[in-house]
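INPUT
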Amino acid sequence: MTTNRPLDPALLRGMTMPRISRRAALRGAGLLSASAFLAACGVEGSGNDEAPQASGFWDSQTKAGVLDFANWPLYMDQEKVGGKVVFPSLQDFTKETGIKVNYKEVINENDAFLGKITPSLKAGQPTGWDLMVITNGSSLDKLLRQNFLVELDQSKLPNFQKNADPAIKNPSYDPGNKYTIAWQSGLTALAYNPKLTKRPITSFNDLFDPAFKGKITMFGDDEDYPTLTMIGMGIDPVTSTEEDWKRAAEKMKELRPQLREYIDNAGEAEVLSSGNAWISMAYSGDIFILNNSGSPDIKFVIPKEGAALWTDNMMIPKGAKHPLDAITYMDYVYRPDVAAKLTAYISYITPVPAAKEQLQAQAAKAKGEDKETLDGVISSPLVFPTPADLSKAHRYRTLTVEEEQVWDRIFQPIVQS
Amino acid sequence: MSAGGGRGRLIPYLVGLPGGLWLAIFFVAPILVMLSLSLQSGNAEQGFRFTWEWSNYADAWEFYHTQFIRSIVYALIVTALCLVLAYPMAYWIAFYGGARKSTYLFLILLPFFVSFVIRTASWKFILNDQGIVLGPLKEAGLLPQDFHVLATSTAVIGGLTYNYLPFMVLPLYVALERIDPSLVEAAHDLFASRSAAFRKVVFPLSLPGVFAGVLITFVPVASDFVNSGILGGTQTTMIGNVIQTVYLNNNDYPLASAMSFMLMAALLIGIFAYARALGTEQVMEVSQA
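OUTPUT
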């Protein structure tokens, strides 16, 4: 890395966070599901044709005082007390509600985690989790299509109704927040090193400048890159058609000679700080962390055509033993003071805009390094994007299972050239 | 030709049984499943149905023929490089290694004690555009600023050659080591020059090693996906990478199975042609000699 200090936890999170290497070279993910088909020659689907949730489901639930919560590493405020890692905001939650949280950082990759719990979901067995955080995209679409999530009782989410950012409410992948509500979000757009490009990058079309030939990297997955390309072409991914996808694929082919390589998701920090890439596709949170860990020059930019907004979502898997405790927590984090605590540590985009005022109040009281850190978080457009930025943010396309196959067959050959 | 009764005749089969079962369960059965899968249609959620979906094969070729051809070309180049690099090494150890032969062999195997991925990733560290090798050369003006090795075919072929070199050295060594040095002396006694002795005696006798070395290098290299994944760029993807992604990320099992079969078929045909060209009989006779 760029510094010799012990690894900054924020940096570590940046490297281990959601988008890490969906297609990293040596990956065990999916092996589980792959082995499933070996069981029989004809391959059964993993879908669940269960009846819709009973209308009395939530009425029959009672508080258990326990919550089994699966989340990504370093995605929760934490402190070291007497050599032990504790989570202050979870401790506060326990104090206020009497619900003890069994918090585990067990999700390193959406598909790998879901691979582990899918057999239980399929069999109608408890997964062992009451609450989990999954990124929007094909993994979440799969969960929704297969009816693996508990339908939320909106009347139990008053803080969410009151405080949630309208921009993250009612997302295209889960209309009406029927099954999920946001945990944190981030933007997918471009980042560049102005010292090397020698000019500002403002448009997706800047990528075609011959001066940047071989100096650009894009994510090599077949979800983020096609989405950003469509946005760059003025197509809204959410309503895009197969024709649009083919046009985007052509555009990506055109761009290919300009590219140095396709990188892993979250690999942009490395290529940008090493100078191997001048411009790269990037996640906002990763660049915030990069700016604070030795590469302050790298600029994150939302091209004038727009950016893609992704969201990590909280949800209750079917078979959860303590759903009422889970929904209590889901609503709890929408209190501005709680959201502020989380944001100060996590530094991704909070779903609660009022957290900003809370942080400003704290910064006014804080001194020295603490104040600097808080001010950095508050003033960063990467953590608190401006309304103008957010108005340019597009959502990802939600695919049916048939569409997904068409999509994959169009885009996979492009990113694996 | 066992002289014994029924029991004695059974013994060879019994000895072969565990290995045979192993192969039947873990090789033959999956291959059959894969063959069936490659002709199915559907998706991972609703299930796949057998529909004689030959279009999987057509699609595989249409979408990914570049990667197929590239993998074979890379494998040929890498195998040739490995042979050229490994032969002198194996020759030297076999004939001049003396009492330290096993030490030298151990040294060749030593890299295997470090994870494959780590070793390949350290190439990335060494060859970084502004790294410890290219950085100073660029600063000294010996290389243009935009020169880079990573993300090129050179990097991938280099990585593959490095990783598979020991697979070539070992069979060559085994073959060369068994050659009786007195045969070479005899050749000299019969007025053969050094090069004639090598061409007419040593090299033909080492052919079984060459044959084995080429096979166990070429086949895994053609389906490797680590080197291209770590060291490659936008024009270096190999078919192994494609199969891995289509299988594990897209869960498009039929397409991935079709590609695996096409790769297997290409390799098998290549190997038979190669064995024919080299003359299997000759190879086998020598190895029995």
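end of record. Residues 55-96 of chain B form the longest helix (42 residues).
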